[in-house]
Amino acid sequence: MPMSDSRIDRVVVPGTFDPVTFGHLDVIGRARRLFPHVTVGVAASVGKNGTGPTFSLDERVDMLLAALEEEGLADGVEVRPFSGLLVSFCKEVGAGGVVKGLRAMTDFEYELQQADLNSNMAPEIESVFVMSNPKYGYVSSSIVRELASLGTDVSFLVPSVVERRLEEHYRGREERGRRRE
Fold first, then answer.
1. Active-site option among 10, 37, 91, 103
2. Are the CB atoms for 80 and 41 separated by under 8 Å?
3. Which parts of the sequence bind substrate (predicted)?
4. Catalytic one of 30, 60, 141, 165
C-alpha cells in the first residue's frame, strides 16, 4: 500500500495514567512539539493487571488535566477517556497517529506487537515512538503506586497534584483498615 502524502495533524497519546507521571508528561510534551494537536486518551483498562486501575477513570482524567495545567502543558492538548480499541478511538477523534514512549527493550517488544496489530486493523494510523528522557527511564505508574503506598516521597516522580491524590488515597486506605480492626 503506498504511503499517503497527507501530514498528520492530530495524534493520540494513549495510556491508563494510573497515575500520570513526569515520564508520561514528557512524552505528551514531546508529542505536542511534533504535532499541532494532541489528544491524550485515558484508557478505561478495567482488567489491567487482573485487578483494574487504582484510580477511577474520572479521577485519572481529572489528575491528568490538573497535572498538564500545573506543568504548563495544557495548550493544544485535549484529554479524553476511552474504552475499547485504540484504533477506534483514533478514528473517533480524527487522529492520524499514535505516540508512545519507550523506556527499555521490554517496552519496545510490547509496543511493536501493538503497533503491528494496529497497523493491520488501521493501516492509515501511524505509530510514532519517542525514546524516554533518561531522567524518566525508570519511572512507571506501578513504581509510583508502590512507593506511595509505603509512605515514600514521590515528589520527584509526579506533579504535586498527583502526589496529593496519592497521599489521600493511601491515607484513606489505612484509615479504613484501622476501622476494620
1. 103
2. yes
3. 16, 48, 86, 100
4. 141
CATH architecture group of domain 10-180: 3-Layer(aba) Sandwich (3.40)
pLDDT < 70 stretches in the chain: 1-5, 47-50, 172-181
Whether 95 and 11 have beta carbons less than 8 Å apart is answered as yes
Q: Where do the domains of the chain lie?
A: 10-180
Q: At what angle do helices 57-70 and 160-180 cross, to 10 degrees?
A: 140
141 labelled catalytic = yes
- Axis-axis angle for helices 105-121, 86-93 (nearest 10): 60
Compute CA distances 77 → 54, 63, 67, 134, whole Å: 24, 14, 12, 24
Whole-Å CA distances, 162 to 55, 106, 136: 11, 26, 16
Residue-wise pLDDT tens digits, 64-78:
999 999 999 999 999
